[in-house]
Amino acid sequence: MTQIKIATDSSVQLSPDEIAENNITIVPLSLMIDGTVYSDGVTITRTEFMEKMAVAKALPKTSQPPIGAFVDAYDALAGDDVEVLSIHMMESISGTVHSAEQAAQLSKTDVTVIDSEVTDRAMGFQVLTAAKMAAEGKSMAEILARLEEIKQHTKLFLTVPMLDNLVAGGRLNKAVGVIGGLLNIKVVIEVVKGHITIAAKGRGMKTIHKYFDHIYEEMQTFGSIKRIGVSHAGALEGALVVAEKVRGMFPGTEVYIEQTSPIISTHVGPGVVAIMYEYGE
């Protein structure tokens, strides 16, 4: 009987217990802060990254794992009748999935690589489901079909209270960023089919608060909310407010709250609060 093992990258939002209990292999991204290179989740924690980014001379740089790191990870999972399913963050923010695809061609084991079209806890929904189905003896085809369903039923939003990192990272025109700063412009991002879209923008925090009300209203229109993730970039207080709200709205539904990954923190900056959820019909 074929055994399927699960791999993913360090942008995923999973607890140490979830990783250990489900035998999930994490391949870390690389981070560079003022010339010093770190291995995400190995030589630097997410909290430490936020602290270092706050005093860095320049915007930190993130890079996908080298192909060799993926090959080593896949080969370590190899065995008789073993297949690997490698699930990664959306290609619109990182070339990680392409490094994994190239490594899959070089590995001595059979590897299937997919783009989750999301990241953070939203990607965690897919990774955890895949790991649990693999443990139940489900086939690769069955797992992939279920993950596609999850993709189609997952929403991911990020609030961006400061535009500095979007400008510094080249994702927003500098002139627009300066004007946005002067006018106190706030942005809400939605990830749609793996692409970053602007869901709302306006002056002041009222823009973000108003859009969160819209998100809450939309969540109530679905038949069920299966699981929720609330992540933040150094904004625990704001994240706790969101988590408390959705826990009250959907008692009994899993709500996972944690600091987001360095790649998200780098791209959108401190103060970000993200909410993501899987819904039923």
From TrEMBL:
SUPFAM superfamilies: DAK1/DegV-like
GO molecular function: lipid binding
Coiled-coil spans in chain: none
Stored Pfam families: DegV (PF02645)
PROSITE patterns given in the database record: DEGV
Keywords per UniProt: Lipid-binding
Domain of life: Bacteria
InterPro entries hit by this protein: DegV (IPR003797), DegV_C (IPR043168), DegV_domain_contain (IPR050270)
Matches recorded under PANTHER family: DEGV DOMAIN-CONTAINING PROTEIN DR_1986-RELATED, DEGV DOMAIN-CONTAINING PROTEIN SPR1019
Protein name: DegV family protein
Protein species of origin: Periweissella cryptocerci
